[in-house]
Amino acid sequence: VFNEDGIDADFRVESDGNANMLFVDGGNDAVGIGTSTIDNNATLHIEDSAYPVINLDRSSISSDGNHIGYINFQNNGDIYGYIGAWVEDISETDGELRFATQKGTSLTDKMVIKSDGNVGIGTGSPGSYDNYADNLVVYEAGHAGITIATNSTNHTSIYFADGTSGAAAYAGYIDYDHNDDSLVLGAGGAARFEIA
Fold first, then answer.
1. Alpha carbon of 86 to those of 64, 100, 127, 136: distances in Å?
2. From start to end of the chain, where are the E strands?
């Protein structure tokens, strides 16, 4: 046991190339890996001159539907949310990320990012919907909706693009001008219908 008396003393382990491979800040109850300069809000601070990486590696073979690893967010032992990686299908080569939150006593997945990049909010199966519009699926058993908000002098818009420059970036669009409360529908890169 190091520092069994609990005095305000730091502890440091050096490696071949890093003087602060492991640093324990005894006065602030914080740990640095690769650094002795720990952010004021951090309990664990990891720093590397190239790119710091944390690996969660399940050593046993996983199959369809098995979880690979979690990061749990807890309060006094109770889980309030998690980010988890799961094996997506029987091929055991595709993975997905799930985000869960707790409401009441129920901890359930609220968002999933599938291996093909499709995102489901309120559903774990965005690919079950029409493949013309399954990149982002929002589901709720009751009323469901998406709000795009700004202040009273700006626009809120949805653009339909087939390129990144010129009119291709807004080949079709729905645009609401909050300054004069007008709604414009566009096609072919130009306004076609306006409600004012």
1. 8, 13, 16, 19
2. 11-13, 22-25, 30-33, 44-46, 67-75, 78-87, 95-103, 106-113, 119-121, 136-138, 155-160, 172-177, 182-187, 190-195
**How many Å is the maximal CA-CA distance in the chain?**
77
Torsion sign, CA atoms 75, 78, 80, 84:
positive
Q: What is the pTM of this model?
A: 0.84
Question: For residue range 62-80, what is the model confidence (pLDDT) as tens digits?
Answer: 677 788 899 999 999 899 9
Q: Which residues contact 4 (CB under 8 A, 6 or more apart)?
A: none
Cα 73 vs. chain centroid, distance in angstroms?
14
